[in-house]
Amino acid sequence: xxxxxxxxxxxxxxxxxxxxxxxxxxxxxxxxxxxxxxxxxxxxxxxxxxxxxxxxxxxxxxxxxxxxxxxxxxxxxxxxxxxxxxxxxxxxxxxxxxxxxxxxxxxxxxxxxxxxxxxxxxxxxxxxxxxxxxxxxxxxxxxxxxxxxxxxxxxxxxxxxxxxxxxxxxxxxxxxxxxxxxxxxxxxxxxxxxxxxxxxxxxxxxxxxxxxxxxxxxxxxxxxxxxxxxxxxxxxxxxxxxxxxxxxxxxxxxxxxxxxxxxxxxxxxxxxxxxxxxxxxxxxxxxxxxxxxxxxxxxxxxxxxxxxxxxxxxxxxxxxxxxxxxxxxxxxxxxxxxxxxxxxxxxxxxxxx
Length: 353
Prior knowledge:
- This protein is α/β, with parallel strands linked by helices.
- The chain has 2 domains: 26-253, P-loop containing nucleotide triphosphate hydrolases (Rossmann fold, 3-Layer(aba) Sandwich); 269-352, no CATH class.
- It is 27% helix and 21% strand.
């Protein structure tokens, strides 16, 4: 059909040679080192009550201020942060932020942090997508956080046809405004045997979408954090707990300095004994490992040795020194090397010298 009869000329898509594309500078690799790549989209996921919102707010405060995330991970790019907390009232978010700022010695008034206070945001609705795009264009954040996904649409999470357009829209925002995007999402309650990404509720599109993903999973009194990246090494094993300091609540890392697995440890039985002497209460393995800064395997071997020698006791509350003037009966040690006795605690059956 000729142009005179109204045929539109179809323009080709823009292309360029790969060699002409400028590589990303090494200094721009991370938003938060090891935790979140610069300009990455992704998921912070986990079961309910796994501190997802606390972790996200810690990230928000760190990026807006430049303070290390979780007091450990350096921030490599700072700037405005835009947050939509769909399930929490602004006053409740302010209270949590006050606690995090107190933990990091920051003043909330100095943070370049903005809350979307609209009661509803549905990303499967064209009008709301336009409003969010205009808001991002106005604030120009380096990080956009939407918490949680379930409150951001009216579709079926299990249907890719409902979820994929939302993820595509967020990816388009990320590329257009050169920012990072964090989407908070829930994991299935019965998915403990699966990989963290596969445990996310709903369509597999969610796991495949992320450039950086953080997964939280409860393990008794602490929560484990697994970190997954598309273009960087992934790692897991970080243990987090909720720390209370007066009115301030914040997440903290149980093992602040990861041990070098191949390096011989200078810590021996005497050092563990010194730690126990200084403690006013019995210490569990997690607490001892954090104070000694050694691998769990090494610590378990030392504890088994000290237990077999009768130099320490193990009770339900943890490890401690025997009472003065008391010799501990030597009982068989768990051959797995975990420092557990096959019989009731030796501290329950002392023999006087």
